[in-house]
Design goal:
Radius of gyration: 21 Å
Largest sheet: none
Oligomer: single chain
Order of helices and strands: HHHHHHHHHHHHHHHHHHHH
C-alpha cells in the first residue's frame, strides 16, 4: 500500500474515532455535569456574538455568561466570568456555538483530547523516539491524564490548543516548514499569557537569521486575525483591554492566593512586597535574556531549543497570572530526558511526574479550589533542570538548520 493511501486511511480512521467520541462524552459526562467553566465563558461570549449579535465584551454577553454559570448575575465575590480573550478567539470556538452547551462541551473536550494526543505524536517525531506499542499506549495515556493535561480537560482550557500550536511551531521550524510555523505562532497568541515572551523571541530570531517565510507567515496570519476582528467588531480592542485590566482584581477575590509562582513564593508565602517580587522575577528574566543574547546576538544556533524551553519556563514563572494547565508545555522539557531512558525508565519517570502532582492536588485541595502550592514545583524544577544540564542541551538537543526555512 502506498504511503499517501496509508496516511489517508489513518486520518480517516482517526476522524471517525474522534467524531464517535463526541456522543460518548455527551452521554457519560457533559449531559450530566455542566462544567468546563473556562470554556463556558469563551463559548457563551462567542455564542452571544454569532447568535445574539452582541459584542463578547458587552454587558449583555457578560450577563449571559454569568447566567450560564450561576443562574443569575454574579454577586459579591463570585467570578464575573468575563470573555477576557482577544476577539479572534471566537473563530476558534465558532464550530461549537450552534448546538446547546452540553453538546458543545462534549465537542470541545474531544477537541482538547485530540490536541493533547496530536502534540504527543509531534513530540515523538521531534525527538525521533519510536516506542514499542505498549510504551506508546502508556505515553498517549500520560498525554491525557498527566495533572496539567487532566486539569485542563476538566476546565475546558484553551491552553491545550495553544500547547499544540506552540509545539507545532517548533516542530515545523525543524522540519523546514517556516511559513506554517509562523501561522501557528500567530494563532497561539489567542492566549497571550502563554505567548507574550515566546513570540518576541521567535520574531527576533527570524530577523537575525533571515527567516522570511516564518516572519511572513506570522505577520500575515496575525494581520488576518486582527483585521477580520476589527471588521466584525471595530471597538473590540479597547473593550478587551478594559477586561484585561480588571482581570487581576476579580481573580484575586474569586481565586485568592494564586498568581505567578514567583508571586506565590515571595508575596503570599514570605510576605515580602512588590519590590522583592520584582527583583526575584528580574533574576529569572535576566537568565532568560542571557540565553536570548547567545542565540540572537552571538548566533549560537546550537542553543535554540534550550533557549526556547527556558523562555517557556520563565514565561510562566513571572507572568501576572498563570494556570497549572499551562504547564503541559513542559513536556517539551521532560521528554528531552525521558526519551533517552529505556522503557522501564519511561514508565517510572512519567509515572512519578503524574502521580506526584495528582497526589499533591488531592492532599492540598481546599473545597473546590486548587491550592497555590500546585503552581510551584513544575516550573521551578524545569528551570533548575535547564540550568544544571544546559551543556547537555547545547550538545545533544536536535539541531535547527536555519537554511531550511530561509
Amino acid at each position: 500500500m502506498s504511503k499517501p493511501i496509508t496516511w489517508i486511511l489513518a486520518i480517516g480512521l482517526l476522524t471517525i474515532v474522534f467524531i464517535g467520541a463526541i456522543p460518548l462524552h455527551y452521554i457519560t459526562f457533559t449531559s450530566r455535569v455542566a462544567g468546563m467553566n473556562d470554556f463556558l465563558s469563551r463559548w457563551e461570549g462567542a455564542r452571544s456574538f454569532f447568535i445574539d449579535g452582541v459584542s463578547p465584551y458587552s454587558d449583555q454577553a457578560t450577563l449571559n455568561i454569568q447566567t450560564r454559570i450561576y443562574g443569575k448575575a454574579a454577586e459579591g465575590e463570585q467570578d464575573p466570568g468575563y470573555f477576557v480573550y482577544p476577539f479572534y478567539t471566537v473563530f476558534f470556538v465558532m464550530p461549537t456555538v450552534f448546538v446547546d452547551y452540553a453538546w458543545a462541551s462534549a465537542m470541545w473536550m474531544v477537541i482538547l483530547e485530540a490536541c493533547l494526543l496530536l502534540t504527543m505524536v509531534l513530540l515523538l517525531n521531534f525527538y525521533q523516539y519510536q516506542p514499542k506499542p505498549l510504551v506508546l499506549a502508556f505515553l498517549l495515556l500520560f498525554a491525557l491524564l498527566d495533572y496539567p493535561a487532566g486539569r485542563g480537560l476538566f476546565l475546558g482550557q484553551l491552553s491545550h490548543v495553544v500547547y499544540l500550536l506552540q509545539i507545532f511551531t517548533i516542530w515545523a521550524l525543524y522540519k523546514g516548514y517556516g511559513l506554517w510555523a509562523g501561522v501557528a505562532l500567530a494563532c497561539a497568541t489567542l492566549k497571550p499569557q502563554m505567548t507574550y515572551m515566546l513570540a518576541p523571541l521567535f520574531l527576533l530570531w527570524a530577523l537575525r537569521y533571515r527567516q522570511w517565510r516564518f516572519m511572513g507567515g506570522f505577520l500575515g496570519m496575525f494581520a488576518i486575525l486582527m483585521g477580520v476582528s476589527f471588521i466584525l467588531q471595530p471597538d473590540w480592542f479597547g473593550d478587551w483591554v478594559n477586561q484585561v485590566r480588571l482581570y487581576p482584581q476579580y481573580t484575586a477575590i474569586s481565586v485568592p492566593d494564586t498568581g505567578s509562582p514567583v508571586w506565590i513564593i515571595v508575596q503570599s508565602w514570605l510576605g515580602l512586597g512588590d519590590i522583592a517580587e520584582l527583583l526575584v522575577a528580574l533574576v529569572f528574566v535576566v537568565v532568560m535574556l542571557w540565553g536570548w543574547w547567545m542565540l540572537i546576538i552571538q548566533k549560537q544556533s546550537d542553543r535554540f531549543l534550550w533557549v526556547v524551553s527556558l523562555t517557556l519556563v520563565v514565561t510562566h514563572l513571572v507572568a501576572l497570572r498563570t494556570a497549572t494547565p499551562h504547564f503541559v508545555l513542559f513536556n517539551l522539557i521532560w521528554f528531552f530526558y525521558v526519551f533517552k531512558f529505556k522503557p522501564v525508565g519511561v514508565y517510572i519517570s512519567l509515572s512519578l511526574i503524574a502521580v506526584s502532582m495528582w497526589t499533591l492536588f488531592l492532599l492540598t485541595i481546599d473545597g473546590n479550589q486548587e491550592h497555590p502550592i500546585l503552581y510551584v514545583p513544575m516550573p521551578l524544577f524545569a528551570f533548575a533542570l535547564l540550568i544544571i544540564t544546559r551543556k547537555r542541551w547545547w550538545d545533544d538537543a536536535p539541531r535547527l538548520h536555519t537554511e531550511a526555512t530561509s
